UniProtKB/TrEMBL annotation:
GST C-terminal domain sequence ranges: 89-215
PROSITE patterns in the record: GST_CTER (PS50405), GST_NTER (PS50404)
Protein name per UniProt: Glutathione S-transferase domain protein
InterPro entries: Glutathione-S-Trfase_C-like, Glutathione-S-Trfase_C_sf, Glutathione_S-Trfase, Glutathione_S-Trfase_N, GST_Omega/HSP26, Thioredoxin-like_sf
Domain GST N-terminal: 1-84
GO terms of molecular function: transferase activity
Presence of the UniProt keyword Transferase in the record: yes
Pfam family membership, one: GST_N_2
Source organism (scientific name): Caulobacter segnis (strain ATCC 21756 / DSM 7131 / JCM 7823 / NBRC 15250 / LMG 17158 / TK0059)
Length: 227
């Protein structure tokens, strides 16, 4: 089985963190530094594997092609060996998926905020401070919802690492490291979990392109957003 992915980015990083936690045998990783159309990175033949051409993409030996990071995580959970990272019972699986869904929605709002608010998008998309403000508020609402859903346990769903931790860390790490957007002060459980999970080798900060990061940092000030 092969996974094509980027070294950084909120969707790719879900899978990078997962693979570091799970350490499955027989999964080959092909990691691209950053998208570069001019240089043909990722190659057109890889992008053509799925309708979106976005990373990550999984190609299995039997020819199965999976796009979409969450589908890839579920596919890996059902196919590779390693610690159970979904949940042992239907209720535990459902709890993991509840968190994954809320974090996924959070990332959609964050992505819209960043894309349409950051100076980084100035030459490629329509900039709208209204869209940015609305989506920033919705992003923080999602984090506050997660705060309510969490218990005092060590990990997002309970006492073991699940795919919810991978999705959560990929989101919060990207927001903090690339855009300088922290977890709000009133999300104390989430902030504590984030600080602790960041110590794990799986959550080591990826290498970001520094030229882009320099423009992205300070998203809150750029878009006039506070908590
Ligand atoms: N919903 C998709 C999003 C994937 C995505 O947007 N990937 C970005 C990197 S963060 C990408 O490949 N962008 C470059 C491109 O689309 O060409 C998923 O969950 O996998």
């Amino acid at each position: 089985m092969k996974i094509y992915n980027f070294a950084f980015g909120p969707y790719p990083q879900r899978v990078n963190i997962y693979l570091a936690e799970k350490s499955p045998p027989n999964v080959e990783r092909v990691i691209f530094d950053a998208p570069d159309k001019q240089a043909g990175v990722p190659p057109a033949s890889i992008k053509a594997l799925t309708p979106t051409g976005a990373m990550p993409i999984l190609r299995d030996e039997d020819g199965a092609i999976i796009g979409q990071s969450l589908a890839i995580l579920e596919y890996l959970e059902s196919k590779v060996s390693g610690p159970d990272m979904l949940g042992a019972t239907p209720a535990a699986k459902a709890r993991t998926r509840e968190f994954v869904q809320v974090f996924d929605e959070a990332l959609t709002f964050f992505g819209l905020w960043a894309r349409h608010g950051s100076d980084l998008g100035r030459d490629t998309v329509r900039i709208s401070l209204d869209v940015a403000a609305i989506c920033a508020a919705r992003y923080f609402d999602q984090l506050r919802l997660i705060e309510k859903m969490m218990s005092q346990s060590d990990f997002i769903t309970g006492d073991r690492v699940t795919i919810a931790d991978c999705v959560a860390m990929a989101t919060l790490q990207y927001a903090a490291d690339f855009y300088d957007v922290p977890v709000p002060d009133d999300c104390q459980r989430l902030a504590r979990w984030c600080a602790e999970f960041r110590q794990r080798p799986s959550a080591a900060s990826p290498r970001y392109p520094e030229d882009k990061r320099a423009i992205a940092l300070g998203l809150m000030a750029q878009t006039g957003v506070g908590f």
